[in-house]
Structure formats: C-alpha cells, structure tokens
Amino acid sequence: MAEAPGVRKAGGRLGQFLRDSGYLRKWLILGVAIGIIAGLGAVVFYLALDYTGRVLLGYLGGYHPPQAYADGGGTGSAGFVRPWAIPLIVFGGALVSAFLVAKLAPEAEGHGTDSAIEAVHTDPRSIRVRAVLVKLVSSALTIGSGGSAGREGPTAQISAGFGSLLTRMFDLSDADGRVAVSLGIGSGIGAIFGAPLGGAVLAASIVYREDFDYKALIPGFVTSGTAYAIYGSILGFEPMFGFVAHDYQFDPAQLGWFALIGIVSAAVGYAYARIFYGAVALTHRLPGGKVIKPAIGGLLVGLLALVIPQILSSGYGWVQLATTRDGLLTIPLWIVLVLPLAKIVATSLSIGSGGSGGIFGPGIVIGGFTGAALWRLADLAGAPAVPGGPAVFVIAGMMACFGSVAHAPLAVMLMVAEMTGSFAVIPGAMIAVGIAYLIIIRTPVSIYQSQRLNRETAGAERVTVPAPEILAADDDDEPVK
User: What sections of the protein cross the membrane (predicted)?
Assistant: First the structure.
C-alpha cells in the first residue's frame, strides 16, 4: 500500500533524516532535544512555583514554610500571622487551578505522571501541548497556595509532552515514541530534583511494575544529563537537601534497623496508594462538578494545616529539618509520628480530589518522616546501634517508602542519594529498599496505576487494542486521528 503523503513528508527533511538514522545518531539528537526542553521546563516551573508561593502563602497568608537547602534553606515562619487566611488561600488556589483544568485541558487533572505513562503504553502521540501548559499553571497555583503536592508531575509532563510532540511532528515509529515519552518523564523528574542518574534509570523503569525497558536506559543518560546541565547552569548544582550524612560509615550492627525501616516503609507506602486512590474513587462518586470538589479538598487541607502546618505545599523544607538532630527535635513528637498519615490525607485531598500536582514529592516527605519517626522512638527508648542523628533513617525511609510503592526501587534509591549527596547510606538502605519492595510486589498496589506488569503484557495489549493511526499532524496541539 502506498504511503500517505502526509506521513511520507512528516517533519520534512529532518523528519526523514531522523527516521532513517541509526540508533546512536537518532537518540543523540532526540535525547539532547528532549533534555533541553526538560531542563528549561523544570526551570520555568520552579520559578513559577517560587513566585506563586511567595505571593499566595507568603504575601497574602503571611506564612513562609521552611525551605530545602537548594531552595535557600531557613526554618521559615514560627507560626501563622493570619491563620484565618490559610484555608481561604488553599481553597482559592485549588478553585482557580481546577477551573483552568476543567475549561482548557481536562486531561491535566491529577498528578500527571500517570497520564504520561498511559501515553507510553497506548498512544505516544497523544499528549497535547495545551495540556502541558495548563498543567504548569494549574500545578503552580495548587502548590503555591499550599496544596499538598510535588513539583515533579508537571515537569515530567512538560518533557513527556515534548517527546510526544516530536513523535507526531516527525512521524516516529510507535516504538521510538514510547522511548521518547519515557525519556521525557525521567529527565523532567531528574532535572527538578537535581538527580540525573536516578532520572535516567527512572525513564527505563517507571512504565512497568516488574520489568525494565533497556532501550530507554542509554538514551536516558544523554537526556537526563542534558536536562540537569540546563537546570543546574541556571539554578545551581547543589543537591536538593545538601550533603546529608556525608560522614556516615556503614555499621553492620544497624542491619536490623534497616530491615525494620523496610517493613514499616512498605506498610506506609501501601497505605499511601490505597488511601490516595480510595480518595479518587470516592471523589468520583460524590456530587459536585470538577471545579468545586478540588476546591473543597483544598479548603479541608487548609483547615488541617492550622493544626499540622507541615502538610502545606511540598514539605521539602520540613524533611530538611528532620535530617538533623537539632532540627527534628524542634518538631513536636506527636507531629513527627502522625505526619506520614497526615501528609497522605492532605495529598489525597489536594490531588485525589482532582487537583493538579505531583505525588512523587509527597511520597518523599512521607517516607522521610517515616524514618524520622522510627529514629525518634528508638532514640527515646535508648535502643542500641541507633545512629547519633536521624539523617540515615530519613534517607532510608525516603528510598524504601516511595521506591517500593512506585515499583522503581533502584531509580528512587539513586535519586534520593543524589538529592541528599549521601551515597554512603546506600549499602544499608539497600536492605530497607529490598525488603519494602519484596513486600509490595506481593500486593496489586502501585502509586502509578498506568504501569503495566512487564514488556510482554504491554506488547500483548498493544496487539489486542492497537493505537489509533495518525494520518496527519498539521496541528501539533491537536493531532488528527
């Protein structure tokens, strides 16, 4: 059958050149291009989030949460200057965010990474440019006003959307398109967290629960490294949390503690996924439109924050405080103990209700305070072989909790090590991560519901339900199907 003219000429000479190129040349060009957009997208979103946070929570609410090391550090406000304003600000940010999503790009609802993973498996050409732009603005409003969400979802969708745009612009094969979108997910998350190695591995592992896409790994090094170079050259190359536990030396006597961290982190990660998607299901059954339900969720988060302010926004600054003994002891014990559950509830209300933002970041906070709570209790009890400070437990908790429930243990372990500059913790943390993952894979739970089991099942699904054929791509924002 003769090839349709629109397909044959897609992308002009450059498109033909890419389609005819070998593996190395093709992915060197595409990898660098996606990496540049991932890095720039991460910068734009970071600046947008910083500005909205300063204006909404800072100027209007009179509240400044503590910041992570790379964000400027500092312990933040001692309390709320205008406590009555906090619920209203979170409500208003969620309301405007939900209105933009509902009217302009309904697919930008939620945490974003799942929709990008779904595009990998069903149609890598399907991510609209409009959805990416709406996601950027709506997520900045949600998080900047105090909604509990992470900044990785929007950055992943920006670069994944660019990979999708390249796929339809140059009429790349479905196989190449799947790799391009996967590279976008990994490089976007790796850039915003300053974790290029973890981002590259994440690109190859995040789309499956029990498998690894080796075709995305080597291009991922190029893409994620480029994204990190762009992001770091503008905003700095410091690890997000600085160099935490840099003088730690592995002690075999602590293996039992790492095993306990793994068991507890698996339970907390399991609860995170079940409560989050339980909130999603409940929201769908409740009356009300797609604008009012996220707004009510935001109001509830604001009210909860009056009791537990640590749930507001990303929460990375609170993790920063928890990495030191003095910092953790400034937080009341009861808050340290309930914060993992409180953050799960707040994230479920902010994003599970239909708001916009990432769920990776909250998972890091949840895992970090799981480790912090265990250290605090062990320290109070005078238990043997407990490190002098909480940093090691916090790092291992971050790795084990989200690495297991995201079904990306290696990628998350590397990312957290890069975010904390703490590769010395990895030998012990491997025990925690391994135990947590072995527990989680015995359940059907994943924080990313669009993941497929492995390459074999994903391939069989594509044969059974093939993606729509793209006949033309004259409008990059609205591909013709």
Answer: 27-49, 84-102, 179-208, 257-275, 295-319, 331-353, 359-378, 390-417, 423-445
